[in-house]
Specification:
Layout (H helix, E strand, L loop, with lengths): L7 H6 L20 E3 L4 E3 L8 E14 L5 E7 L6 H9 L6 E13 L1 H8 L2 H27 L2 H9 L5 E2 L3 H8 L3 H14 L2 E4 L2 E4 L2 H8 L3
Helix pairs in contact: 5-8, 6-7
């Protein structure tokens, strides 16, 4: 479903858009805002980039897939944040190197490539993009460190933290996030349950001892 014009929430999330030319109100209706339900694929790996996504509400998970069907989450894009993969694709005119899926009902604006290029010529917008680009690179560096230097059980413990006392998540979703297979995640979760750190339910993980999980995760 497409709304007729960007809302105040867009400028609240992306204040630099108040200064760019052409202005956001002059974008064609096909750019959105577009509202999609959770689970909607937004862009595909190896496909050409259709534009620069600006998330107004909701969240987009960006991940890479392996040849055997496994997936590794790279980062998530929330309102006010930048999609590194889309930006890099537009910078280099190369296909997308990851895929994006809405993790919950999401509203976004898709800025056409030629408009994104025009905005980059403006100092304020360029500084904002490069600043967020640097932040995303730091996030990816942390991910590489975690994958390369921390055991999977430590990474799983860290992935369970910071989401409240109960996670509505499947073992497959956790496996996708960690870039592994469901069977290994299930085995580790059962071990955590035996330790008394979590309680497992149907598509639910209840945190019983967050301090123990945090100690086990270490400085991930």
């Amino acid at each position: 479903m497409t709304s007729p014009a960007p809302s105040g929430a867009l400028l609240a999330a992306y204040p630099w858009l108040a200064e760019v030319q052409p202005g956001v109100d002059s974008l064609p209706p096909a750019c959105g805002p577009l509202t999609v339900p959770a689970g909607t694929p937004l862009f595909a790996e190896h496909a050409p980039c259709q534009g620069f996504p600006l998330v107004i509400e909701g969240e987009v998970q960006v991940a890479r897939s392996s040849d055997d069907g496994r997936s590794l989450e790279l980062y998530r894009v929330q309102p006010g944040e930048l999609c590194l993969v889309s930006s890099a694709c537009l910078f280099s005119a190369q296909p997308l190197t990851a895929h994006g899926v809405a993790t919950r009902p999401t509203t976004l604006l898709l800025v056409p490539p030629e408009v994104f290029t025009a905005w980059l010529a403006q100092a304020g917008f360029r500084a904002w993009v490069l600043g967020l680009f640097a932040e995303r690179m730091a996030d990816l560096t942390s991910l590489v460190d975690a994958v390369a230097f921390h055991r999977l059980d430590q990474r799983l413990a860290a992935a369970l933290l910071g989401h409240g006392p109960e996670l509505a998540v499947t073992h497959q979703q956790l496996a996708d996030t960690l870039g592994t297979v469901r069977e290994i995640v299930t085995r580790l979760l059962r071990r955590f349950e035996r330790e008394g750190w979590v309680a497992l339910g149907r598509e639910r993980v209840r945190i019983l001892d967050s301090a123990a999980l945090r100690r086990h995760a270490g400085p991930v």
